[in-house]
Amino acid sequence: MVCWSSTKLMNICIAALCKGQRLEKAEAVLIDGIRLGVLPDVVTYNTLIGAYCRFVSIDAGYSIIHRMREAGINPDVISFNSLIACATRKCLLSRSLDLFEEMVQIGIIPDACSYNNLMHCFFKLGKPDEANRVFQDILNRNFSPCSATFNIMINGLCKNGYTNNALMLFRNLQRHGFVPHITTYNILINGLCKARRLGTARRILKELGESGHRPNAITYSTILKCCFRSRQFELGLEVLSEMRSEGYMFDGFGYCTAIAAMVKTGRMIEANECMNQMMKNGIIPDLVTYNTLINLYCKERKFDDAFKLLDEIEKRGMECDKYTHTIIIDGLCKSGYVEEAQRHLDYMNSMGFGYNLVAFNCIIDGLCKAGYIDHAMKLFKSMEIKDSFTYTSLMHNLCKARRFRCASKLMLSCLKGGIDVLKSTRRAVLDGLRHSGFVSEARKLQSKIRLARLLR
DNA sequence: CTAGGGTTAG
């Protein structure tokens, strides 16, 4: 007799192969099993559904439903839950709803997990009311909601702009004895950060520490990213030192964010410390990490160190990307080596990289700063594509050289091309015109700027 | 089933 345990054994084997993305091998094991008289059961097919959904497509997953039926096995709630979860994850939301309905219609009773999926789907559809209805349903039917239910709810509320309700739900749950998991904290912190409520986010972070959980890499990268995005570098660095004094570690992503922000704010000593700490923690640099470090060295004019890293990239069999080259070009410009920067741009082109607008902008700025504004204007005229950086850079430097009418002309072509410029540049051009006697020209330009902004 | 994310220019 073929015993139950051989099917179970086969399932374990198939599950392991599926996990390693070896679907063909898994199918081969199944065929072998059937030939030897080991019959697949609902677990076997559910494993395959999960794997096909994840690695191939939802349709491939769904086709297993047909195969099961042909083999005389009915799909169960787990089969459908995997399909629905997969559809939701891939944002095929109407598909999720159809699958849910199909499941109910063939008489399968949804479980807590099905309802969680449904809520998640409604939130992604931007229908928080529908999601809330499902949530109330879960509570009313005494489905004993698990922490995932609450997490999906809190996350969904945040993502749909109801950060306050999310916070209230969180507090309510706590009052009822719910102990938040690290995931719950992270969801809430992310929501608060995105809503620019940094103060509250920090309070929740503090509570997280007091709760006995430790903030993980996700927690900190969420907070840091948010501080730096809103240009609150001081606060970000404060969080960073808080984290350090607590003995927390970054992953490679976190270090890159932190080092880049320090370089941008001119905190070179701290950036170097951060880099050393990263090395000590055994983070193996990837290309983005190298780019970040090369940027640090270039901005410190340590070109020897920068080129050492370039060698290291090659030695490890990696290839520099457009970021690497742009960083070098900008570094050379900022150190006054504009000719070398231009040579490097030519070299980059010969390597088959496409048009590099950022690099051109760096060189335009570099030429201006080195006093070659006419040279910069010539290059500007030859450029195929320009953006607000190109114009802002030129106009700002023209103003510095007191060539306000030329800057004014550029401003007009910005308005015509629908290119936005910095407020400070607008101010510099207008004030410059006024103070150098071109009052009526300034007035005309100002009204054109107003008109353009109204039409936008 | 639920959470985040890295690098360049004004």
TrEMBL record:
Protein name in the entry: Pentatricopeptide repeat
UniProt organism field: Quillaja saponaria
InterPro entries with a match to the protein in the record: PPR/CCM1_RNA-binding, PPR_rpt, TPR-like_helical_dom_sf
PPR repeat ranges, renumbered to this chain: 41-75, 76-110, 111-145, 146-180, 181-215, 216-250, 251-285, 286-320, 321-355, 356-390
Keywords: Repeat
Source species, domain of life: Eukaryota
